[in-house]
Amino acid sequence: MAHSPQAVDGLASVPALLHRNATQFGDKPAYREKEFGIWQSWSWSDTAKEVEALALGLLNLGVNEGDFIAIIGRNRPYFYWSMVAAQSVGAVPVPMYQDAAADEMAYVMDHCGARFAIVQDQEQVDKIIEIQDKLTEFEHMIYIDPRGLRKYDHHKLHQFAHVQEQGRAARDEFASDLKARSDKLDYDSTCVMLYTSGTTGRPKGVVLSNRNIIEASRSSSDFDTLGPGEEVLAYLPMAWVGDFIFSIGQAYWCGFCVNCPESPDTMMTDLREIGPTYYFAPPRVFETQLTNVMIRMEDASPFKKWLFDRYMAVARKVGPAILDGKSVSFGDRLSYALGNLFVYGPLKNTLGLSRVRVGYTAGEAIGPEIFEFYRSLGINLKQLYGQTEASVFITVQPDGEVRNDTVGVPAPGVEIKIADNGEVFYRSPGTFEEYYKNPESTASTKDAEGWVATGDAGFFDPDNGHLRIIDRAKDVGKMADGAMFAPKYVENKLKFYPNILEAVVFGNQREECTAFINIDLTAVGNWAERNNIGYASYQELAGHPQVLDAIKVHVEEVNRSLADDPMLAHCQVHRFLVLHKELDADDGEMTRTRKVRRGVISDKFEDLLGALYDGSDEIYTNTEVTYEDGRKGSISATLKIVEAAVVSVAAQQVAAE
């Protein structure tokens, strides 16, 4: 059985860490938020006062120990305070996706029996009012932004600032109750409940204790020598375990500052202004940043383009080696230093990554080419493999041992084993307590000895002992001839190209592989403008003959690189089509964390999948879509099916010889 550590120095809960930080780091900034273009700052002692006022206000409203409090909105200090205030009174915060549809929220809030919700604004208030009839235990809602809410019934609706004011006014009445509840918290108390993204079914409530969060935060902070001087940007959904660990777990353990951008639209500007030292982004963010760089280079002058190409070649050759402290010739170091002056330095500055000391990507596999691009600029980007059920960390990459094809070694305190069928299992102090109200799923995921089934297939690389993840175990299949089918690997190669936003590869139990592709409207739209190609919609651009030709070139390049890999050479894409709509979480085709729901897509577009395999040249289809305001509509299109050249493995071997 995995060891079960005890709290260090009595720091057995997040509120206890807050108390320590307010004492030790009193005037040091704990939170910054940009509002109306101006950064506002709160110190650790300010934060402790804000949290205490809200906690007293929650007691005044009648929050009981064990109550669930839904937290819905974008990353703002108020919501992080809300989570810690909820914990301080013995309640459990349940952060939720702010872009979730009302019925998705209804499921989560009804499942956990939330009595209270703390929300951002009128939009979220309206969503909850819409579903209130389905929520049997729901009582009070607290909102931060009062705009548009003046004429609402305020019997059960309260402004955040007013709840805090009432808390301060009732301090004498409730201070002893608050202290009693906070003092009762220990390592076994529930810290947070986070719902899984529900790739295959209904989301599950993952119960994480103070032990899980604090131990995972402590060991990971030690691993990367994080300290109170770090700056992080909090912009990922608060419902996601990564944000909870970085913006609460590690921030409170180390005492560093959490910076909240003004809005998703200003995120890149705010990133540049803060210049984080510790940075995390899922592959999609790195892909988008790289796409934007490539678009800008297309518009650059010939000299700038030449300079960029010349020095990026140097960076690809020696950048990662210099970053890892390996020996590199004087001439190459000099070329790299010049490249840093002319290209890499200004580029990192534009990306807002100049000060990054430790960068991580996780959530899904990142394309090796994208990963190497950032490493070659001198950004210490590493891969991390984790899960909500693990309090994030399963494997990490030590400095100097970073590879694009592995996810590193077991994180501190984590044990890993590989089952006979290739599935990865782990256990650690971060291993979740249970799935809420779901003993069957808990038992099927976590055994009596604490080993957790990840659902991912992988193996340890015999050369370096690093873990390689092939794909989701349920997605790894076999082609008709018995060869391995690993769609995610191929999809990530396709998504390296700025023109391709999303790809879904099929081939399980079939003779050959095919693919659905979504174009990146920004990148392809930019190309269309430069070439004077007019278009009125995504659908029109996606079906343009020149766009199909460009995508075909990318698919064939991927096929050539797959032919070099004997294990996956048979996963080359023979035929593909460019979808007439973007895959969308509102249409159920992706999760809120933008993971493809492969089963939903193959069922929904059954006619298109059939056409890829029956030899058709084109197919007419009609698809239901959901608009931003929730209304339903439909779009129809005739899609061209494109043949892509594949490389026979035998021919490739002859060429190599």
Write a brief caption for the model:
The chain has about 650 residues and is α/β, with parallel strands linked by helices. It folds into 3 domains: about 15-280, Rossmann fold (3-Layer(aba) Sandwich), CATH 3.40.50.12780; about 285-470, 3-Layer(aba) Sandwich (Rossmann fold); about 475-655, GMP Synthetase, Chain A, domain 3 (2-Layer Sandwich), CATH 3.30.300.30.
Task: Describe this protein's structure.
By secondary structure, the protein is an alpha/beta fold. The chain has three domains: 14-280, Rossmann fold; 283-471, ANL, N-terminal domain (Rossmann fold); 477-656, GMP Synthetase, Chain A, domain 3 (2-Layer Sandwich). Helices cover 40% and strands 22% of the residues. The protein is built from 22 helices and 29 strands. The protein has a five-stranded parallel sheet, with helices on both faces. A five-stranded mixed sheet has the order 12-13-14-15-16. Strand 20 (452-460) and strand 21 (467-472) form a beta hairpin. The longest helix has 22 residues, at 302-323. It is globular. It starts with 13 loop residues before the first helix and ends with a helix.
